[in-house]
């Protein structure tokens, strides 16, 4: 199975400089084709300028134009300007002298994303659908096809079409050709949607798959997101007679129309295991005005009787910006500290009232 482009970048960082021949060998070992575009994009994102200069010289005209779009997107270029750049690259991809069917699909996806930013949603829908169809035909389960599926699902979420988004996610099987990163992202997205639809059994399974795959693949941020979602959903579903999550996932079948969902359930042992792994993944950051991840961690600590493991969460009330999280903490701390947290919550509400009156 294809490895992440970060693998080659990491080897370069450790062993630089190396010959182009060695880089090609690493690329082949990682399961990539002859194009260096994906690694150029990763090198740019990682700030590996020396490697980028080396690999960029290997790109053809269409690949170079596509890399320029990635640069512009990461540099925050305005959507209207980006749209012009994409259309120019598309002309190259369609030109008989430089025709590239795969990158034409990739560029139609890029145009769809730019159109979303411009508010042209129906045009974006057409481009994202066209791109996914093309990429499925010429590079199924390739990097760009995977990204096109995730972007298509995200579009359906954006326009409030959750069932359509779930349909797209279902096109990414766990046992297919897609890389673990794509599967993990799709299952995390599906978990969020199933939770919103009240199908918590499915949400629990999908969040567990997302957490497990991401953790095994070294994707710490995604493992944290999937794990804390799992903790939040499973907080009231501990059952030591439950099947293991792996068995639940393997035995799950699509729900028939009108069929009731089953109650979610997870053993205390598995739940505790995810909790402790999330503790290891937590960077200690508590800021942000929407911290459902920390709410999940707090819920698990309360259920498991391990609230002392979250001592860092209670150290600095002024560092927290999520009013719901602060209100939850007020129910946990003792009376002497509760007034401090009450003061923080009151000050936030006061500032909110002042801002809304301006």
Question: How would you describe this protein?
Answer:
It is a single chain. Helix content is 68%, strand content 0%. It is built from 18 helices and no strands. The longest helix is centred in the last third of the chain and has 23 residues, at 335-357. The radius of gyration is 23 Å and the shape is globular.
Secondary structure layout plus pairing:
Blueprint: H1 5-15, H2 20-29, H3 37-46, H4 49-56, H5 61-74, H6 79-94, H7 101-117, H8 121-139, H9 143-158, H10 162-169, H11 180-196, H12 200-216, H13 220-234, H14 245-251, H15 268-281, H16 292-304, H17 323-330, H18 335-357
Helix pairs in contact: 1-3, 3-4, 3-5, 5-6, 6-7, 7-8, 7-9, 8-9, 9-10, 9-11, 10-11, 11-12, 11-13, 12-13, 12-14, 13-15, 13-16, 15-16, 16-17, 17-18
Structural class: mainly alpha
- Count the beta strands: 0
Shape summary: globular
Number of helices: 18
Rg over CA atoms, rounded to whole Å, is: 23 Å
Low-confidence stretches: none
| Most strands sheet | none
Q: DSSP strand (E) fraction?
A: under 5%
Mean pLDDT: 93
Cα distance spanning the termini:
55 Å
Query: What percent of residues adopt helix (DSSP H or I)?
Result: 55-70%
H and E order: HHHHHHHHHHHHHHHHHH
């Amino acid at each position: 199975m294809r490895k992440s482009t970060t693998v080659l970048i990491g080897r370069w960082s450790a062993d630089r400089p190396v010959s182009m021949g060695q880089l090609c060998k690493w690329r082949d070992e990682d399961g990539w084709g002859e194009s260096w575009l994906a690694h150029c994009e990763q090198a740019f994102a990682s700030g590996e300028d020396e490697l980028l200069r080396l690999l960029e010289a290997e790109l053809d005209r269409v690949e170079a134009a596509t890399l320029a779009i990635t640069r512009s997107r990461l540099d925050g270029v305005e959507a209207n300007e980006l749209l012009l750049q994409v259309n120019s690259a598309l002309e190259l991809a369609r030109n008989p002298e430089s025709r590239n069917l795969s990158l034409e699909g990739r560029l139609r996806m890029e145009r769809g994303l730019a159109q979303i930013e411009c508010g042209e949603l129906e045009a974006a829908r057409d481009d994202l659908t066209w791109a996914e169809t093309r990429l499925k035909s010429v590079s199924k389960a390739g990097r760009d096809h995977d990204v096109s599926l995730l972007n298509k699902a995200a579009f359906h979420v954006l326009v409030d079409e959750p069932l359509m988004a779930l349909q797209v996610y279902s096109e990414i099987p766990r046992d297919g050709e897609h890389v673990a990163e794509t599967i993990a992202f799709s299952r995390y997205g599906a978990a969020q949607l199933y939770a919103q639809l009240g199908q918590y059994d499915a949400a629990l399974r999908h969040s567990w798959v997302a957490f497990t795959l991401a953790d095994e693949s070294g994707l710490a941020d995604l493992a944290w997101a999937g794990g804390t979602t799992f903790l939040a959903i499973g907080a009231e579903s501990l059952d030591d007679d439950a099947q293991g999550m792996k068995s639940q996932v393997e035995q799950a079948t699509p729900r028939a129309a009108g069929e009731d969902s089953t109650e979610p359930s997870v053993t205390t042992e598995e739940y505790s295991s995810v909790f402790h792994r999330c503790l290891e993944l937590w960077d200690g950051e508590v800021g942000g005005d929407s911290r459902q991840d920390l709410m999940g961690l707090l819920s698990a600590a309360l259920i498991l009787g391990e609230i002392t493991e979250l001592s860092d969460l209670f150290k600095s009330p002024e560092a927290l910006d999520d009013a719901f999280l602060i209100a939850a903490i007020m129910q946990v701390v003792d009376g002497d500290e509760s007034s401090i947290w009450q003061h923080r919550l009151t000050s936030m509400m006061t500032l909110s009232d002042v801002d809304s009156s301006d």
